[in-house]
Amino acid sequence: MTTPPDRLLVSEIFESVQGEGVSLGVPSVFLRLAHCNLRCGWCDTKYTWDWHTYDIRKEVREYSLDQTIDALQRLRPRNLVVTGGEPLLQQTALVSLLRRLGRDWTSEVETAGTLVPDAQLTAIITRWNVSPKLDNSGNPTDKRLRPEALRAFAALPNASFKFVLAATADLAEVSDLIARFDLPSERVMLMPEATEAERLNELARDLVEACMQYGYRLSYRLHVALWGDKRGV
Fold this sequence. Notes:
By secondary structure, the protein is α/β, with parallel strands linked by helices. It has a domain at 7-164: Alpha-Beta Barrel (TIM Barrel), CATH 3.20.20. The chain has helices at residues 56-59, 65-73, 91-101, 119-122, 141-144, 147-154, 171-181, 197-214, 222-227; strands spanning 7-17, 27-33, 61-64, 79-83, 106-111, 127-130, 159-165, 188-192, 217-218. The longest helix has 18 residues, at 197-214. The two termini are 27 Å apart.
C-alpha cells in the first residue's frame, strides 16, 4: 500500500482515555489509520482492513494533512495516539503531521513491530507501544515476527512491548521472544485478549503471578472494562 506523503488514509478520529499500555488512563486523541499488513483472528478493529466484511468506501477517508490537523485540534486532549490498522504503513505522512502539530502535543504510536521505524519518526515520537503478535493471532511466523524491526524497537528506550495473551499457556512463547530479542523485562507488558469485562478480569487475574515473578507489567484494557467492544471510545 502506498499513499501520497501529504495525505493519510483514516479510519476514525475520536477522544477518550488511553485504554492500554504505559499511559493507561491518559486523556488522548486517537487517530486510527486504515490498512494493516497482518490478519489477527481476534482483532477488534477489523473495520480498518477486512474489506471482505467491511466496505472500504464507508470505512476509509483520505485526509490531507490540513484536514487531519484541523480534526485533531478540534478535540480537547493533547496526547495523540496513532493506531490502526498498522500506522507504520503511512510513516512518511506521519512525520510531516507530527512536525506540524508541534511541541504542544505528545505522541504515541501503536504498532505490531513488523516494520522498521523511520529515523525521522523515532526522533519525534514520545512513546512507542509495540505489540508483537503471538501464535494465537493466527498470523504466519514470518509475517508477525520480523527480527530487524523488533531489534530496532528494542534499541529505543521509549519503546514498551505489549503481548496479547489468550491464555496463560501463551507465557512460554512470550518468554522465548523476550530472550530472543533481549527485551528488558521492565518494558514488557502482558495484556489479556478480551472484548468483554468478565473475561478481561478473569485472564488479568491469571497473569498477575507471572508479572510478580518476572517483573513484567500488567496492561489492563480500560476501554473494554468501561464500554465492552463499543467502537470509537
